[in-house]
Design a protein that fits this description.
Length: about 210
């Protein structure tokens, strides 16, 4: 996958850093004036520290449950191996994916039913978009557009997809929690980053990071 390329991983992190810098400018403006500026990014406002901490804790709990389920099912050895620089693209994804999905891909101000249904729908899109149930392999010497798609329907892939689905639902819940009055995506980003770092740490501990 693309994350195995150091160029792609560093490029992903650079794009995420640029977008985060823009988002942070909107965040600081809101924190100073208590109102969003015109054209501000979605969710660029403070959030309760307790909610951020709760999000990180619950995300790591989901990771622990997922790892335990894989071990109990005897499928932990089916994990994909990653290069060490994959962590760069994962950290970038923690912000970019939250900005796109939790920030914009949700139906707001159309009633509770529309909100809940959109959360479920886009969470399914989010989970299926992760390369667990499918593979895209690029042959040596071919361009990134010359790869081959294939299915990967295994128990380990199903557990990983289900975990990402639960994470997505958690991240949406953090944004629309009653205590998150400004609908900040900060708790979502922090929880997502903690989860991705945790996944990398687990893979490293189990020997699935190719140093």
């Amino acid at each position: 996958m693309f994350q195995d390329s150091p160029i792609f991983s560093l490029f992903s992190l650079a794009v995420a850093a640029y977008l985060f810098a823009l988002w942070l400018g909107d965040f600081r403006h809101f924190a100073k004036t208590r109102s969003p500026r015109k054209g501000a990014f979605e969710g660029a406002c403070p959030a309760p520290a307790r909610l951020v901490g709760l999000g990180v804790f619950l995300a790591l709990c989901l990771l622990g449950i997922s790892s335990a389920a894989e071990n109990l099912a005897g499928v932990s050895e089916g994990q994909t191996k990653v290069a060490p620089y994959a962590i760069f693209s994962w950290l970038g994804a923690a912000f970019v994916e939250e900005l796109i999905f939790r920030g914009y891909l949700v139906v707001k101000n159309k009633g509770r039913a529309a909100l809940v249904l959109s959360v479920i729908f886009f969470s399914l899109v989010f989970a299926l978009g992760h390369p667990f149930l499918w593979n895209y392999e690029v042959p040596e010497g071919a361009s990134i557009f010359g790869g081959v798609w294939s299915a990967n329907i295994t128990l380990q892939a199903e557990v990983s997809t289900a975990t990402v689905l639960c994470c997505s639902l958690l991240f949406y819940a953090l944004r629309f929690a009653p205590s998150n009055v400004g609908r900040s995506i900060l708790p979502c980003v922090c929880a997502h980053a903690a989860y991705n770092i945790g996944v990398f740490a687990v893979k490293a501990a189990q020997g699935f990071v190719q140093w």
